[in-house]
Amino acid sequence: MKFRHLVLIVLLVGGFWYFTSHRAPHIPLAADMPAVDRSPLELTEAHAQPAYDAEELANIAVYKKALGSVVNVTSSAVAYDFFYGAVPQQGQGTGFILDKSGRILTNNHVILPNSRQIEVTLSDKRKVKARLIGSDPSHDLALLQIEAADDLVPATLSDSKGLVVGQKVYAIGNPFGLNGTMTTGIISSIRSVRGPQGAPIEDAIQTDAAINPGNSGGPLLNSRGEVIGITSMIASNGADQNSGIGFAIPINTAKAVLEDFAKYGHVRRPSLGIAPLAIGPDLAEQMGLAADSGVLILKTVPGGAADKAGLRGGRERAYLGNTEIYLGGDLIVGLDDQPVSSPQDLAEIMNRHEVGDWVVVTYLRGQRRLTAKVVLGDASGSQSLN
């Protein structure tokens, strides 16, 4: 029995030795591996001085010309919550330098109401205090003043009359605080739109150049680096970011506003001195009016342009939904031989005039079609909408 155990142990030990020494997996050595190509690595490198195509050169030239005049604008204010706790607020946008005396143009909505501090960051990162010296909420424009310096770079203003769809444009601004950002696009359309305060902006420049929060107040430039507009709004469909539809205030509108600031210290917008109501076919039928569309005079401002010309507002009180209106007033259907169907039509025509100009108003009083010569008043001196 002992002999059998001894033989079994010898067989086990011998088998283990045989398999570990003769059947172990082969591990390749470096000498067994195929030869590797060790020739020098050759890279294809660009020329030390990159060559730009014509379009790139044009883009670079516009950016270099305009960047020095573009600034970042921040406005700080304090609001109060439900419990009268102070809540800091900050508005941010863009602006551009108008002249070496330190005047800067931006959007009015960039400057917070009751702003306690306005700060401007120049293109070289210098931060300077600014003060508001003029504002025009109806055209969404604001004029700032900073301390003059010899190295200020004024923007070159172009003429926005005669712009055409398809023309290339550039926007430089501070979208989302990313200062000195340039985007490109074309003029998509020239159309009238309503500004942030609801007032019409005639001949606004629609563009597909990327415009985002922070671009407001910055320059929209032509291919020569000249300002043709002030970027102001985006059609965001609630997304609050670029959707390929942005709008700029034409620079000629801004020039007219700046002229008013210089002459009068405020903007003189022409006014008829009326409270208007847009009339469509449904309302016209309900009210028994003699035209399917027009602008109904709800009331006239005492001593205003329309009142002086003999136009009449309504006397019969009524309600349109929850809004109190007055019926029986004159229905304006034309101004300067152009048809009028909305208060926006009125404003667009009047914006081609100045305070003191006279216009011919065509209106219906009952079934009678009449005209009146009206001398336009100053909107800043009345409480009228038009």
Which helices and strands occur, and which strands form pairs?
Blueprint: H1 2-22, H2 54-67, E1 70-80, E2 86-97, E3 103-106, E4 117-121, E5 127-136, E6 141-146, E7 168-173, E8 181-194, E9 200-207, E10 219-221, E11 227-234, E12 246-250, H3 251-264, E13 270-271, E14 274-279, H4 281-287, E15 294-300, H5 305-308, E16 316-320, E17 323-327, E18 331-335, E19 338-339, H6 343-350, E20 358-365, E21 368-375, E22 377-378
Antiparallel strand pairs: 1-2, 1-4, 2-3, 3-6, 4-5, 5-6, 7-8, 7-10, 8-9, 9-12, 10-11, 11-12, 13-22, 14-15, 15-18, 16-17, 18-19, 18-20, 20-21
Reading off the top of the CATH hierarchy, the class of the largest domain is best stated as Mainly Beta
Rg, alpha carbons:
36 Å
- How far is the N terminus from the C terminus? 125 Å
> Which sheet architecture does the biggest sheet show?
6 strands, antiparallel, barrel
Strand/helix succession: HHEEEEEEEEEEEEHEEHEHEEEEHEEE
Q: What is the CATH architecture term of the largest domain? A: Roll
Strand content: 35-45%
Number of helices: 6
Helicity, in percent? 10-25%
Task: Compute the number of strand runs.
Answer: 22
State the domain count.
3
Give the helix/strand class. alpha+beta
Shape: elongated
What ranges have pLDDT less than 50 throughout 5 or more consecutive residues? Answer: 381-386
Within the CATH hierarchy, at the fold level, what is the topology of the largest domain?
Pdz3 Domain
